[in-house]
């Protein structure tokens, strides 16, 4: 009984692509996935084409392929539209990152310059303290205005 079950299991198993069972250039396992009519001879003779059944099958296949082609064209258009939107969004994100870096740098540098001004006020050269104060204020005001205008 054990041998019978093993033989039955072997018969019920699908042959693997490497089992050596070949039909043309393809193995049996691969042809099942690609369609039942894949291994048939594809060359049609004029007498075959005159058969109404063959003509109906060919027309049906052409209709199916045209439908598939129209669906694929829609997907192609949708893909290109989405790809374009992704590229635009990526560039906007890069721009936003650069703007954030400039904002943070300008605000930090302006604050540092304004913060150091009182400690050097009245020392020589005397024009240095007001200059640092002015540059710091311009950097901070510029950063804040840039943030307001961008939004």
Describe what is shown at a glance:
The protein is mainly alpha-helical and 151 residues long. It is built from 5 helices and 2 strands, in the order αββαααα.
Please report the number of helical segments: 5
Q: How much is the radius of gyration in Å?
A: 38 Å
| Oligomer state of the chains in this structure | single chain
| CA(first)-CA(last) distance | 81 Å
Q: How many strands? A: 2
Features:
mainly alpha; two-stranded antiparallel ribbon
Question: How do the helices and strands line up, and which of them pair or pack?
Answer:
Elements: H1 2-12, E1 22-23, E2 26-27, H2 28-34, H3 46-49, H4 52-120, H5 128-150
Antiparallel strand pairs: 1-2
Helix pairs in contact: 4-5
Describe this structure in words.
The protein is built from five helices and two strands, in the order H-E-E-H-H-H-H. It is mainly alpha-helical and 151 residues long. It has a domain at 21-46. Strands 1-2 form a two-stranded antiparallel sheet.
């Amino acid at each position: 009984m054990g041998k019978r079950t093993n033989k039955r299991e072997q018969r019920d198993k699908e042959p693997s692509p490497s089992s050596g069972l070949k039909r043309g250039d393809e193995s049996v396992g691969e042809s099942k996935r690609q369609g039942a009519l894949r291994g048939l001879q594809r060359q049609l003779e004029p007498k075959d084409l005159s058969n109404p059944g063959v003509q109906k099958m060919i027309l049906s296949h052409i209709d199916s392929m045209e439908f598939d082609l129209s669906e694929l064209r829609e997907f192609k258009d949708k893909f290109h539209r989405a790809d374009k939107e992704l590229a635009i969004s990526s560039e906007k994100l890069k721009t936003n990152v650069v703007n954030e870096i400039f904002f943070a740098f300008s605000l930090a540098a302006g604050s540092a310059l304004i913060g150091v001004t009182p400690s050097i006020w009245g020392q020589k050269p005397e024009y240095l303290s007001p200059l640092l104060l002015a540059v710091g204020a311009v950097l901070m005001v510029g950063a804040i205005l840039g943030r307001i205008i961008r939004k």
